[in-house]
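User: Please run a holo structure prediction.
Assistant: Happy to. Please share the sequence and the ligand.
User: Here you go; the ligand is cytidine-5'-triphosphate.
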Amino acid sequence: MTTTRIDTAIIVVAAGSGMRLGAGSPKAFVGIDDHTILRHCLRGVFGAAPAQVVVVAPAGRVGEALAEAHEQAGDRRDLVTVVEGGRTRQESVAAGLGRVWADVDVVLVHDAARALTPADVIDRVVGVVRETGHGVIPALDVIDTIKRVDGDAIIGVVERAELAAAQTPQGFRRDVLVAAYERATREFTDDAALVAEAGHDILRTEGSALGFKITTPADLAQARRIVAEAPIAPVRPAGIVRGAPRVGVGTDVHAFGGDGSLWLAGLEWTGEPALSGHSDGDAVAHAIVDALLNAAGLGDIGTHFGTDRPEFAGAHADAFLAETARILSDAGWLIGNVSVQVQAQRPKFAPRRVEAESALSAALGGAAVSVSATTTDGLGFPGRAEGVQAFAVAVVLPA
Ligand code: CTP
Ligand code: MG
């Protein structure tokens, strides 16, 4: 981890649907090459001086955004925050602002859709805000001749020297931005307009031709041509020796008292009392998910399978484990092996141990899984047969 004091935050708004792009999925998750628009944007963001990075993601895509951000963050992964956005860009920025750390005094707001914005533009905006205390936007001179029109009629020329094309990131003193957002009663075209309306000065700094916004399919085609010449470099979290394994630990507890039959270690145990929980209560599977995510440094079960993923309500081990294996593989990890111990008075595990190991292994795409079980001599809640506890350890290797 970096030891620099973090006093800047960059809110990356990525919660839009991308209607005009029309790619069938939220714009930030559309691929430019092997990497998404969001990922490319984060490359610039993490290339700039260290800052808290608040990614504002569409509903249902928070986990995915977190994985993308962690992957690109490298040794700055502790600086990542992800939050769900709102109906409008302004609501999304407000959601991001709500998660900015207390120590931060300068906040930048950046469109994920300006995916190719270079890091030096970001550093420049921060620099001018810190130097002057004013709001700062990157902008480009307008090179086209601009006409004032009324329908098809040209009714005047606009003096080009008076115009500049605004880009992001737009930077502000935190107190100024927060106060301006609190008093905004209507939608503004950008954050600078909202802050200017609240009576503050805004300066411009030099933007970049690469800071164009991907709005239409033609913009995406343009971005694809550019990155084809400069593909994204893989980032490996610091502290990880290339090829070195990493270990992770996970534990889970569920109480008896659910509906239907017992699901444990990926198997259905008919005639046994069910466990209760958001899903099927399979403590063995959940401990494994936590151990794997923990080993890979990708958060935990709540990060990826929270209540924002209703498709996992009532899901069984196979669904959780397959999705976990996918998340790890996307982040560049191979599963070495998984070892899990279950503490339970019942069911009697030994007769189905091998069957459980194969079911769990199959769900993880063939990774080695070993399961052991013990009773606790009548002690504690497992001993009183109130519930089941599982402990898992996993080893993962950089792919
Ligand atoms: N944005 C957001 N939340 C919204 C709307 C927009 O976070 N409710 C973000 C987008 O993800 C994008 C940036 O604001 O990075 C600029 O918006 P725009 O280019 O208009 O993106 P979309 O709204 O997704 O596209 P469209 O207007 O074509 O639907
Ligand atoms: Mg929009």
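Residues 119-132 form the longest helix (14 residues).
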